[in-house]
Every structure is written in C-alpha cells, then in structure tokens.
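re the bet — no i am not wrong, look at it urself. input seq straight from the record:
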Amino acid sequence: MSPSAQEIETALHAHVIGQDKAVRELAVAVAMHVGARDYQGSTPLQKMNVLLVGPTGTGKTEMVSRLADVIDVPFASLPATAMTQPGFTGFDPDQILKKLIQRAGGKERARDGICFIDEVDKIARRPTDDSDQAKGLTTGVGVQQSLLDILGGAVVEILGQGPFDTRGVLFVLSGAFVGLERMVAGRLAAASRVARPLSADRATLLRQVEPRDLVAYGLIPEFVGRIPVVIPLRPLTEAEIVRILTEPKAAPVRQMVERFAMLGARLEIDSTWLLQVGREAIARDTGARALLGVLQAHLSQAYRDARDGDIVHVRGLEGGIEISRAPEVLVT
C-alpha cells in the first residue's frame, strides 16, 4: 500500500529541520504521484513533477534524497549545468536516467525512481543573455527542450538501454533563482497599479510565484508546463541551523564528537558557541550546506592537539577552546 501524504510528511520531518510548509507540500505532491501509479480511471493524470525554489543551503538536496529513502525508491541526481543538447560536449539529458537505472540495478525498479536535477535556474534563458542562437541551445533553451519528453512521461530511447518509460519517474528540480522575487514583485505591482514594485521579503514573494514568472525568468513555457508543483523554501533561522548541527542522526556535531572519540578524547560544545556557528553560516550565505566544514575549520587545531583522555571544551562568545588534560602519572 502506498504511503499517505501524512506518513511521508512525518517521515521527512525526522530528517529535515524547518521548512514545515515546503515538506508538507512536497509530501502531498509525492503521495499524488505515487498514488497515480495504480490509477485505472479514464481521466488523464498529469505527472506531479516538482520545482524547489530557494537559497543555497536551505535543505533542497537533503529533502529529496531523504524522500527517496522514505518511499523506498532508487534515486539519481545531476546538475542541470552538466547537461547539454545532444551533439554537444557534456551529458545528454537522458544521462540522469542512465544513472537511475544503474542505481536501481535495472530498468524495472528504476521506473518508480526519483531523478533530482539541481541548478535549473542556471539553464534559464535570461533577457540579458547573449542573443547568439548556438549559445542559447547549449546553455539553456536547448537543454530545456531536450528534457521535455523525459519530464512529460514519454517512452524515451536511451543509448545502450533501449526504450524506457518515464511515466512513473518523479522529477524534482531545484534552483536558487536569484532575482525571481523581483519579477514576482513587478507583476504584483502592475496588477495593483502601483507606481513601483511592492516591498516584501523574498520568502513572501516566492510563495506567490506563478508559471509566468518562471517564463519571465527564462524557462520556456513548455518546460514550465511539465512542472506543475512549485515549492518555495525560506532561509533557515539561526535556531534551525543549531538544530541541524545537533539533532539529525548524521548531524555535524555528532560526527565531530565521534571523530574526537576515535582519538580517545571527549568533545563538549557550549550551546552559545553553536549559535555563533549558525550566525556564521548565515553570514557566509551557505545555510546548512557547509556546516561540517565550518566546524572542521574551528576545531582542526584542537583535533591536532587532542590525545587519549583529553576533554576538549568549546566555549561560546570569547571563551575559545580549552583542552583539559589529566596529569601524567610517573611510573617509578
């Protein structure tokens, strides 16, 4: 029996911190997609492909990879920037299907898998781009056009694999879409006949994204039409970053504690210092993506100096890092 939207949402919350609204919307879309696999009715059902829109480090990749675990299907990912129109140097768009089949161990199980295509905003054809037709084909429009059949649920021919039915494959696309909020604001301002774009924060504006805004950004209408579900993600708060640092099973702090434990040392971190790390991640505009790297940078000296039996205490504010060492016992 297929999992319900509530079951998917609950399972995702065990791994994804914050983004409650985005998790809920994704769970509903996935439940609809999974439920359509066994549909025998006469009404054509459009594929529920999803576009995640939000800043770097807000959990897009983590959310989708965990989703594959939740519904127990194979998962493959590829950045859109690695794709080119067939005939040019780079990956053909069907490369992601090849990866999915490889991960699944065959076409049969791959037909129910998830393909994640990141950095989709980078293949948008912006009005300010060079007008050269060849550039448009290889960097944007050509890639979008080459993905249309795959996204739409057609049976496609994969080199070396033969025909492959993509109707059951869920495609989740994502991108930061920097500046998209300005297009939304301009449209809303024009609709309300105000002299200048409305003033609102980015998250509020992205919640009002419509297909025409994505077309204005540079995605072709046919491409946008194959992604009916658009889900915005908001920037993480300091408190949520602290939770990401400590709560998940593979949380960065848990990982660092284990690394020190392998030295025989005990790592103790004050909560005030973790809050500082959260602020640093926000200042770097990396969100949760680089948290392990931030911890490693701060703790590398202590890791080098620590030895068996030490207590490494990381204090907040200006407290620094203190290594407590038991006095050595001389054997006579």
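see?? The longest strand covers residues 170-175. told u. also The chain is about 45% helix and 15% strand. so pay up
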